[in-house]
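User: I'm putting together notes for a lab meeting next week and I want to include a structural view of one of the chains we've been expressing. I don't have a solved structure, so I'd like a prediction I can at least talk through. The sequence is below, exactly as it appears in our construct file.
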Amino acid sequence: MTSSVRRCTSEDKDTIWKILSYAYSVPDASRERFLERLDLIEKEFFLNEVDGVPVAIARVLEFEQNVRGILKSMGGIAMVASTPEYRRSGHNRDLMLTIFDDLRRNGFVISTLYPFKDTFYSNIGYVKMPPSRTLEFNPNMLVGIKVPDGYTAQREEGEEMLQLRKVLHNAMVLETHGAVMRSEERWTEMTKNFNLKAVVARNGKGEPEAIMIYSIKGYGEGHEWAETGQINIVEFTWISLEGRDSILNYLYKHSDQIIKVTMVISTRDQDFYHWLSNIHTPTLRSNIVSMARIIDVSKSMSDFPVNSPGVVLISVIDPQIEENNKIFEIREKDGLLSIKESAKQAKTTIRIEGLTSILYGTLNEAQLRRLDWLEGESPSGLFNWFPPAYPWLTEDF
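Assistant: Thanks for the context. Below is the predicted structure for the 397-residue chain, given as structure tokens.
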């Protein structure tokens, strides 16, 4: 059998639909809307064919991700699926390896995804990132949150709302490790047929400082004629605590209508337990873990500002991407990290999973050694340059 991977074209829309709808049990009623969506994103799909038969697909979204304050080109992997007749035959793996090559050629240095099965992706170099958490609460628990003087929180819609949403989202990304900057194509996809609610907090000068995108349904609790009142917060971005509190107070004003609010708690919201009153045990649940992988060692690890000088020599093991499977010298130069290949002998060996964990700040040296991702001398300089951090992958794809 001959396997061949290529980018999809407009002629592949029905093939994409057939594979995805079967793999994810998408109802036929969604077909027309999905095909309309494909008009915007079809070029992002890769197709693996075996002897001319379509067997596997994957979507690659082009993003920039904030990694410790530096925007790095990131390929987001989504909608990986295969036909049942050809599963467990290595076709998804072949597809992913071709995608790695394409990402490198096009300048992408890291990749993230939400796994359908983490063991599959860990076998090709991805490493798990911390899960986000979802908080559930009754809005009357926000009774202690007051609107700051001069601030308002009002529902808005239309093009102006969408534009300020972009501005506030971009500001959040620039100050949040792990957050994702959306492309114009991604914004177009997300806002097409927009049917959610939006509330905007403005200061006394009328300047926007926070926005919340949400859905609302039901009324109260225990009514035969209505389901339980719920608000689901899809996106909540803010650039000031005053703006944030204005919107939290807006949620409180729904206390007679809504019983449950659900929202993702970001790394910027770690004080959430101070928002809530009359609560003993917050209702928190972890969401699906994300995974990340270095695609280009040199470009992913370079250009970070550092305060301490030093030189670290490491031998990287990356069975899937040969260009990474080398010895690298990392050093401070003029206040920035630089990295280059080296012919010297390294006394430290690190797997690509371990190096990815160091880049994002999720595991320490003892943990890496326990996982057999680090051997030899301690690369203490790396841990000084890349201290522990908590990445938050803001994008759901």
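A couple of points you could mention at the meeting. Residues 210 and 238 are 4 Å apart (CA to CA). The radius of gyration is 23 Å.

User: Perfect, that's what I needed.
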